Amino acid sequence: MEQDRTDSSTTTRPGDVPSLIRALEEHSYLADRGLATAAHLASTLDRPLLLEGDAGVGKTELAKVLAEVRGAQLIRLQCHEGLDRSQALYAWDHPRQLLHLRALEASGERPADHEAELYSERFLLARPMLQALRAGGSAVLLVDEIDRADDEFEAFLLEVLSDFQVSIPELGTIVAQTPPTVLLTSNRTRELSDALKRRCLYHWIDHPDVERETAIVRLRAPDVPADVARRVAGVVAKLRDLGLYKPPGVAETIDWARVVAAADDGELDRDTVIDTLGVVVKDHDDLLAVRDAVDELLAS
Amino acid sequence: MTIGDDPRGAAAIGPADGPEGVVALAAALRRRGVAIGTGQVVTCQRAVATLGDQLADRYWAGRTTLISDPADLGVFDQVFRAMAAAAFEEGSLPALPPRQPPAEMTAASDRGGGVAGDGEEPAVAGMIAAERERLRHRRFDRASEEELAAIGATLQRLPIAVPRRRSRRTRAGRRGELDLGRTLERALTTDGELVDRAWQQRRTTPRRLVILLDISGSMAAHARASLRFAVAARRAADRDAAQRVEVFAFGTRLTRLSDHLAARDPDEAIAAAAERVVDWDGGTRIGDSLDELVRVWARRGVLRGAVAVICSDGLERGDAATLEQAVARLRRQVHRLVWVNPLAGDERYEPTQRGMAAALPYVDAFLPGHDLASLEELSQVLASLR
Predict the structure, then answer these.
(1) Residue A56 touches chain B, beta carbons under 8 Å
(2) Contact B250, B286 (CB under 8 A)
(3) Do A45 and B4 touch (CB under 8 A)?
């Protein structure tokens, strides 16, 4: 019977939440408890994990780091409108098939006798989802920006994710021996179907608070002095409250901290902000708005 | 600090204690309107069994498995907190729900209701041609309730076509790019000889139609008619096109109507929206409303490549500069921008008020929308936009 213990006295099982947090941190990714729990459950329960949140909060990054932590292969499927099976699952290598056909003909064979040969493994192009099914547990499949694909694709994805198997008419059924870890990200450009959402675990990633973002900057850019990291993180937090068209993500914060630290005096004063603003605010209208508000931003 | 970060938390208590606890939590969430499937409850129990006994584990197990919409996160926090409070003394739970994502509209009621248009149709069907013609040119704001109902019924059957764009998908065609897959199949029947080549062409998909309805007091009668137009667009024969219609309503603020048009009586949807976004003494703030649209919804890709239709009299109570900036931004985000202004139905009308004058340079098409005939014209203009 497991009882409540403090972290220090527990020899953590490999694969519990605190050790996942630590492992992610060793790979320079600071996950809070909620996110780590979600990622942990995704692999223990064999459920896809749907991650939502503003651009730049680290949704895609989590998949990359998770793959590193597990020593797994990251397989990425970038979604876009019009994405279909032939781009996501598999396609036949038609040019090679044609060449093969011509070669058969040239050697005096009747190509029709060799039809089955044409649809063999040799001529199969495995796209990300098939690759992931074959790799099984040793893969992390990232289905990035699922909201950009259309709903027919969503239905198809759901089908594959329910059984972790797929049938190719010419070849037969391919089943994942152990299910791969599947992460889906969405920017909420449209509502996903209820069926897909119910199938998935769900986590909303928020922008980190100042403390956590400072730690992230320190972890990612060790050259940046602690006070600069904190100051930059503080100003970025205020920037996000300005209601910009494109609020800065964590990557922008890190870039900005690097730039500020490299500036002459390493101080985040009015001139430095004005000069380096383009690193963190990347929309013309936003730039104008922020320039007007510089003094408020720097007031502590 | 949220509950979820709290490492303390005693064993064997908390809302998710055992299967009964999980079921009770799910039931409480359902009572608050959160849709939860049985499969999710089972997953939640497995998650609870997988994780430790701490309160934070219970919290995250429940949240990760039972919630799939950021709008429900606040409800989850409240329900979990209330149930956990029974196990903790009052006030010992740290209070801080996670920051909510950009506010989306919440339904005034989850229950659909009202009868849509059925009873109205015979009135139109039996009408003689002259009467129909008279109705076509009846100004919405001068029409009686019966006339509005008849107009509404006609509008709902109006065929609406939206411009199309090329998609990445292809279909078989007589010319275009070589379709190797089908060429190969044909080659097999001719012993591998490439006698007959197959071709593929790009398909086209309808562009998204974003309709923005001014539902402030001065636009009330017109808004009802414009909304019928929007409903008609959503019921378009082309399923693809119907899916791609977004409807927003605004007064002093903006709210999204799209999800509330199918289930309920359109008039009821407008009335509910008006309660949320119309301050009766605040006037219309078109600039602020459009600004909200380009801030919140553009980021989600709703506007990209779309055809936007603003139905408003352009009587702006806010700052004309804000309006100009928002319209300019909107114009850069969408493919085409159409402004439908009922006031323009009057021949003497000139768009000289500050608001309308500021917006006009960014508009691709400016149309009146004061009667049925003018909305039919709008439909034609939409189909002809390239």
Answers:
(1) no
(2) yes
(3) no
Which regions of chain A are under pLDDT 50? 1-14
Q: Tens digits of per-residue pLDDT, A4-58?
A: 433 333 333 347 899 999 999 999 899 989 999 999 999 899 999 999 988 889 8
CB A66 within 8 A of CB A102: no
For residues B201 and B219, state if they share a domain. no
**B248 φ/ψ angles, rounded to the nearest 5 degrees:** -120, 150
- Structural tokens at position B48: 């609870």
Total tally of structural domains belonging to chain B: 3
Considering only the beta carbons, identify the residue of A33, A198, A206 that sits closest to B68.
Answer: A198
Q: Phi-psi category of B237—alpha, beta or left, where left has phi over 0 and alpha has psi -120 to 50? A: alpha
Q: Is A108 left (phi over 0), alpha (psi -120 to 50) or beta?
A: left
CATH topology for the A7-89+127-204 domain: Rossmann fold (3.40.50)
| CA B122/CA B18 separation, integer angstroms | 59
Q: Tell me, what's the ipTM? A: 0.76
pLDDT tens figures, B279-337: 665 678 889 899 989 888 887 778 888 899 999 988 888 888 889 989 998 998 888 89
Q: A228-261 burial, b if ≥16 CB within 10 A, otherwise e?
A: bbbbbbbbbbbbeeeebbbbbbbbbbbbbbbbbb
Check whether residue B71 and residue B9 sit in a common domain. yes
The alpha carbon of residue A252 is apart from the nearest alpha carbon of chain B, in Å, by: 17
Q: What is the pTM of this model?
A: 0.69
